[in-house]
Amino acid sequence: MKREVQLPVFPLRIVSLVPSQTELLFELGLGERVVGITKFCIHPKEWFDAKPRVGGTKCVDFEKIAALKPDLIIGNKEENCREDIEALEKDYKVWMSDIYTFEDALEMIFEVSGFTNSQEKGIEILKSISQAKDAFTQPIDLKKVVYVIWNDPYMVVGKNTFIDDMLYYAGYVNVVMADRYVEFKVEELKTLDPEVVLLSSEPFPFKKKHVDELKKHLPEVEIKIVDGEMFSWYGSKLTKAFPYFASLF
């Protein structure tokens, strides 16, 4: 965003506007220092049940944030609305992540642990992720895949996304060559000739009926529902991602 955030002291009242980064803050042991989260910050459950919620990732409640008096707000360039962030940074310190790759995610974890004075725990998390990655053997033959995140219309993941990068690490090659996220019709999916279609559990909650419906059009293709958090959450969830990828094969 071409600007610098300067903190005179380590933040003691943090509002997180991104679910995966909220979970990271918990794993960093920040406890009471996180004073606000979004309605989509479902992990950890004890925070979801107890912490004040400041709206969603796309539509924040400015009055609720003001009441919490944060000394730092943490967001993400893709998940939060630019208008909301520009309005918030007039009154608060706002730090934004911008994540397209697995390496970007590791850098984010390192940076957040640094400016929250929880470097020791951050290094532990990074080591755990590294160990999990090293223990996973990527298949030699990458399967051609389409990763679907929305239904009616179908929306699929393209290049220049964190999910695309994670698909590679998981053992797939994304056959969608368009940038970012694009709408596709079933007929267009056929032309991509995928070996596998993965239906994400989020943001749209795909069910077995959706698998059955797609099977009618793509009878030769392996179609299955996967845990979307393992492919799209770029915080401490990465410690669980690689064991999950192994289970898919």
Main features:
6-stranded mixed beta sheet; Rossmann fold; alpha/beta; 249 residues; 4-stranded parallel beta sheet; 41% helix
Short description:
By secondary structure, the protein is of the alpha/beta class.
Task: Describe what you observe in this structure.
By secondary structure, the chain is an alpha/beta fold. It has two domains: 14-133, Nitrogenase molybdenum iron protein domain (Rossmann fold, 3-Layer(aba) Sandwich); 143-248, Nitrogenase molybdenum iron protein domain (Rossmann fold, 3-Layer(aba) Sandwich), CATH 3.40.50.1980. The chain is 41% helix and 18% strand. It has helices at residues 19-27, 45-50, 62-68, 82-88, 102-115, 119-135, 162-170, 186-192, 208-217, 228-232, 238-248, and strands at 14-16, 34-36, 72-76, 94-97, 143-150, 154-157, 172-174, 181-184, 196-200, 222-226. The strands form two sheets. Strands 5, 6, 7, 8, 9 and 10 form a six-stranded mixed sheet that branches. The protein has a four-stranded parallel sheet with strand order 2-1-3-4, covered by helices on one side. Helix 5 packs antiparallel against helix 6 (119-135). The termini are far apart.
Number of domains as seen in the coordinates: 2
CATH topology of the largest domain: Rossmann fold
Radius of gyration: 19 Å
| Weakly predicted, low-confidence segments | none
Briefly note the structural class of the backbone: alpha/beta
Give the end-to-end Cα distance, rounded to a whole number of Å.
39 Å
CATH architecture label name of the largest domain = 3-Layer(aba) Sandwich
Shape: globular
- Count of helical stretches: 11
One letter per element, helices H and strands E, the order comes to EHEHHEHEHHEEHEEHEHEHH
CATH-level-4 superfamily name of the largest domain: Nitrogenase molybdenum iron protein domain
